[in-house]
Amino acid sequence: MKRILLTTIVLSIILSVSVDTFAARAKQIKKSKPIITNTFPWAGRTKPVVVPFRKPCNYKQYLWDQIHGRIYLGHRDYRYEDCDGDGENSIRDGGTDCNDNDDDVFVGADEIPYDGKDNDCVDGDLVDVDGDGFDSVLAGGTDCDDNDALINPDASDTTCDNVDNDCSGVVDDGVASIPADNTNGLCASNIKVCVAGEFVTAESNYVPVSEVCDGLDNDCAGGVDDGLISRLAANQQGACSGNIETCEGALGW
User: In a 3-state reduction of DSSP, which class is residue 104?
Assistant: First the structure.
């Protein structure tokens, strides 16, 4: 009975010391900066290697291996980890994966525009799809159509196409009016304006009317007072019967 009691006391002391040693070692590892260790002695590497400390993917396993002296001895090499399992080691470990916490990010991955990630680890997130030098508005830029290199803040909006080519917020705001189809006579100033991608007759245009004896081309037919040759005079009494009057242009009849 005494032997059993003594054995129990000894085991309790050993267990207590082991737990305290484990905790102390773990605390020491957490505070440590570099790790100095031998790596793969069977491969001819016998000199100590200083590896800057950084938290491994499986930190609990790392602590366990450190405490038991198993780091770099064939059990697990924390310098060359692939935390996200995408097949590429982290850049910090000499690999090519620029974000080893995201398995959608690795060299060769399809770059997804405007997702805030450098999916293929080349030149950051894709925010200028059309390559016109302007980032998309979807990524906080100023390009209102990142699928068309001809549409950007530096482009001119002079084509009547119902498109905001210069990303000003207004469609076709730089398109000038053009002459109307008929610019004869009083229609000389008539114009067409761009509306919804088409040139239409301006509402302020002069509308042709029948000719009046005034020396003007009222009907915009291309002739002044055309068709107004003569007419009976107002006084047709007596000897004046059959008198006529002619249009004298601006002087009237």
Answer: coil
